[in-house]
Every structure is written in structure tokens, then in C-alpha cells.
């Protein structure tokens, strides 16, 4: 029973690490994919997991959702239900990489780190934090429209990236992710309640932004991921289907990002003084060009 954040390399053989530049090539994104991301603010349909990896992570997720888990205190946040609507459920947590070997190693998944490395301009890649989002069948709650960086201004400069990966097939019926294409060009908006009113963010938008507010659904098969820019407006609607919608999120930033606060960056993490580089036990270097 240990805090796995002390280990900055894979623990299991669930995600084999390539041993040569040639072995890395299978994970590289194409130029067309990179251009799409920069134009629209997101890139979807990237396969990160095979069937075996999906099953292992589903099994681990079930254990992590137990509030009596002996390492529950290692979560930075743990919400059995973060929904503002008492009739719906949204399980949301941060910090499971510290507890589960499989989720710890998912951070070093070669398919993830190569794509993230490229999307961040092939700079060194550091871990920020992870999340779990689970919407049960029939009464799964919403994740309100928001921009991730509006919650992350305690770190600068803005050179972050989000990866959302499904452990169930996700579609419009069970509450898949939706994007507002090109909204990453709008600048930083106000910070709404993440599990509050779905359209709360609209109160802070301009007329032009509201005119361009055209949500696009991002259906994904289990094991596939979508990456998005830190200013991308995104959210997800309720799950009224007969199927669950479980997903994990990996948030990263480019090496060289610094703390913008003298307070805790995450609950339980020692303070990194304002102006100091983000590094150490909780923000490991995942990938850099000299590793290829």
C-alpha cells in the first residue's frame, strides 16, 4: 500500500515502452491531424487502449469508486456525486494515478505521450493531474460548458493539453463529450461551476461567440481518445440511456510551466512557490525528444 506518485516510470507491463525510434513511429500523428488540431482546437478518434487494457482499467475503476478504499485519502479530490441536480449522478475525482498501478502506468502509455508531445509542439511533456468522470446509466449528470484553463490559472504560461479517453463506448445517448469548434481562439472566459447549470458559461459570452456556439458531438469507441486545447469550450449532456459512460482524463503541460500561486496547486501537494518551475514528485517528466 504505497503512494505511486513516488514512482516515475511504468510499474507493470500493461503499456510496453518502445525501445527504438522506429518503434515510436507507429504512434506519431500525421501532419493533417496536427493541422486539424491547431485549426479547430481538438483532435478525436485516437486509439489509446486495446481490449485487454480497457478491461484492466475498468476493473481498477470499480475499486477506486469505493469510498472505503484504503488509499482513498490520496485523492486530491473525490466526489461520489458532484452533480448539482440531486436526481443525477456525476462521479468525479483527481489523483487516482497515486493509487492504481494500471492508471499510474496509463500516464506512460506510448500512444498518449507521443500524441501529447506532438500537439504541444514537440516540447518536453510533464504530468499535471488526472481525472475520472463517470455517468451511470439512466441518471448520469452533466459536465457544464467550460474551458479547462479557467480552472488552471494557478499555472503559467498557458501551454497545457487535455486528453479524454473512454472506458465505455460514448455517444449522444449516454452523454459523450461535445466541443464548440474553434472556440479555443476566443480567449479566456469566466469559470463556471463544473457540474452546475449546463449553459452557465453563455452568460459570459459575446454576441459573436453566441452566434458561433454550434456544439459538435464527439462519439468515441471505448479505448479511443480525444485531445483538446486548454481554451476549447466543451461539456457533456446527461446520460439517460441504459449504458454507463466511464472515462478518464489525463492533463499535461509543456516542461517549463511555472507555479502562479503560493498556495497548494492540488490538495495534498507541497507548495511550489510562485515563479518556480513545476516539477518533482507530483509533476513528473513523461517524455522529451531525447527519449526517442
TrEMBL record:
GO terms for molecular function: 2-oxoglutarate-dependent dioxygenase activity; iron ion binding. Keywords: Dioxygenase, Oxidoreductase. Its cofactor is Fe(2+). It holds the Pfam family PhyH. InterPro entries: Phytyl_CoA_dOase-like (IPR008775). Gene3D superfamilies: q2cbj1_9rhob like domain. SUPFAM superfamilies: Clavaminate synthase-like. This is Phytanoyl-CoA dioxygenase.
